[in-house]
Amino acid sequence: MDNDIERVLYSVQDIQEACKRLGTQMAEEYKDKNPLIVGVLKGAALFMTDVIRQMDISAELDFIDVSSYHGGTESSGEVKLEHDLSIDVAGRDIIIVEDIIDSGRSLKFMLDLLKERHVNSIKVCTLLDKPSGRVVEAKADYVGFIVPNEFVVGYGLDYRNQYRNLPYVGVLKPAIYENK
To answer: Structural domain boundaries of the chain?
Structure first.
């Protein structure tokens, strides 16, 4: 898999430092709130695990799965709810944990869904923020890294469900996904 990577953007150490920074910050802000931390499957699973290890607070976990890429390199524009939360969120303080915010469509979909369910508050934590990819308004409250407008994989991010297990985030060589 390493041979398919054009260059590494964020090393294992870079990611560990970001997880510590973000987890510590959220723990301080939520120390008396018992937030519900919502991981966005599948991409955010590794990041969520590492971030919550840095949070020495009471919190609950749940997962949601929304999809807009459907195996490609760009958002299809259609967001589908693949797996819903199992916990009632009414009145709760929510932290959505994302791997990447790109077009913003998936995040907007989740924010709208949670607001309809009368949550108390919602904040968003993302490993990667790609503002150059936005087509709808979407903003994270906690950001690991601002990422360039390139196709990235690793540390949970995938191409056709591959590369998630790379321990770093890297730019996938265009030859891997062009003409597919």
So the answer is: 12-67+76-148
Digit-by-digit pLDDT tens for the chain (180 residues) are 899 999 999 999 999 999 999 999 999 999 999 999 999 999 999 999 999 999 999 999 999 999 875 555 565 578 899 999 999 999 999 999 999 999 999 999 999 999 999 999 999 999 999 999 899 999 999 999 999 999 999 999 999 999 999 999 999 999 998 865
Which fold, 12-67+76-148? Rossmann fold (3.40.50)
User: Is 102 one of the catalytic residues?
Assistant: yes
Q: How far apart are CA 6 and CA 80, in angstroms?
A: 31
Among candidate residues 93, 99, 102, 129, the one labeled active-site is 102
With a threshold of 0.90, does the pTM exceed it?
Answer: yes
CA-based torsion, 111, 116, 117, 122: positive or negative = positive
